[in-house]
Amino acid sequence: MAAPTIASAEEYPPTPPPANPSLAGSAVTSVCDGNVPYITYEIALTDPDSQSTSNTATLILSDGTNTESIVLGDLVNGQLSGTILWPGASVDANGEPSGWPGWTKVGGQWVQTSGNFGWTRNLTSATIEVNPDLVVPLSYPDATPDCATAPPGVTTASVETPGLVSTGVSALTLPIGLGALGLVAVGGVVMLSRRYSRR
């Protein structure tokens, strides 16, 4: 009777490596509600092999110079969702807006400032961090006719010099053209004067 064949280690299939955790499908969105800027988030962690070393979600905002880390909370069964005020925004006890990023009240008047998280109006990156991380698109919400993202009665739009109606004549050449027309008019008057004087 032949001895049983013992399989070598090379004949067993290798154990597949553990799957990397993923935040695919997670999203962060800016919204304006009741003249207040908010950030809403939906975070989903897929980690079938329990490789993630953290259960706390953090949102990291940056404009390339400044950075702000906002702890969103702990995931429950790999899920976390909610809404938070945009950094620098505030509401009073009645839920009415009382502050906006980049604005401060001085002497009863709202004035723009580089403080109060004004830089978050021009973000260059936003990252959800759990381990793994996920870069997500996020920008300060635009104002609409129904929702202001700045104090009442003020605007952040730059004042532009009104342009000329599009006629093919630039603002630079217009004074030259008017000057030329003036010379032609003067010349015509001189010529007429000479004709009448000859008579």
From TrEMBL:
Positions of the UniProt region annotated as Disordered: 1-25
Bilayer-crossing regions: 172-192
Superkingdom of this protein's organism: Bacteria
Alphabetical UniProt keywords: Membrane, Transmembrane, Transmembrane helix
Name of the protein in its database record: Cell wall protein
